[in-house]
Amino acid sequence: MPYAPMRDGARLHYYDIGRRSPRGGRTCVLLHGFAMPAALWVPFIAPLLHRHRFVLPDLRGFGGSHRLSLSKPTLLTQHADDVADLFEQLDLRDVHLGGLSMGACTAMQYHRLYGFDRIRAYLHIDQSPRVINAPDWPHGLLGELQSGGFADMGALMQRLEPYRGQAYRKLPRTLRRELWAALATFYGHAFHQRHWRGLVRLSRHEFLIRRLAPVANWPIYMDCLRSYLNDDYDWRATLPAMQVPMTALVGMQSTMYPAAGQLAIQSMVPHARVVKIDNCGHAIPFEQPRRFVSELGQFLMAA
Length: 303
Prior knowledge:
The protein has an eight-stranded mixed β-sheet with strand order 1-2-4-3-5-6-7-8, with helices on both faces. Strand 3, helix 1 and strand 4 form a beta-alpha-beta unit. Helix 2 crosses helix 3, helix 4 packs antiparallel against helix 5 and helix 5 runs antiparallel to helix 6. By secondary structure, the chain is an alpha/beta fold.
């Protein structure tokens, strides 16, 4: 399996699949969401592999990069640096870049730190331009539920912190149950459709969720959530500098990030194409797969 060396000596796992340099084809890099291994992109890009090349990194802490710890205190800066290193190692230019949720945050942080000189077009999938609510911004993570949700996550992290550095099996069973219950509640905000919400409830069962979220480096999940709670992730000042074509897909029933905040992207990036997707929450590729594949194909061919 391919790995790319990072500036701190870590080796980031990625997939490189599809057709290279066909006439009219593109190179597309897709950045996944929290606790989503990059391999979950494959069913959605499969119809496009005959025409385009896809590079799918497992961001640090997830999938094939799960065992990699953060070498920087700010999660999304770490991920943005890793994306920059991946571009450099693979000599990727003229890239169509897409990001879902945490992946979209990573893309915006990359834009803030490095600019988009290597990017030809950007696909933004259900993500607010600011994470933490403010007096002038009630549309951050979890919307009006943010205060209570953040308090619950913060309290759980305090109870888990004394076990940092210990193997997962050393965690008290009650804390392990709390961990998976909290993550299941968080995942639940990603979906609007009833059958998906029912399926997510099964993630409370440890033997099921560990198939998706490995535990060899279990503190990484806490580090990610802590960064969301504490770090200043606000891209409203830098988004207007985006010059490349941009498409923003908005799940109109999203409770992870209220649609109103995402629709405000239109005023920050006037040339952006904002696409409203009804009967859909945060996890657009999963709840509206045909629509997503269609929009991804249009994104790749339009710019």
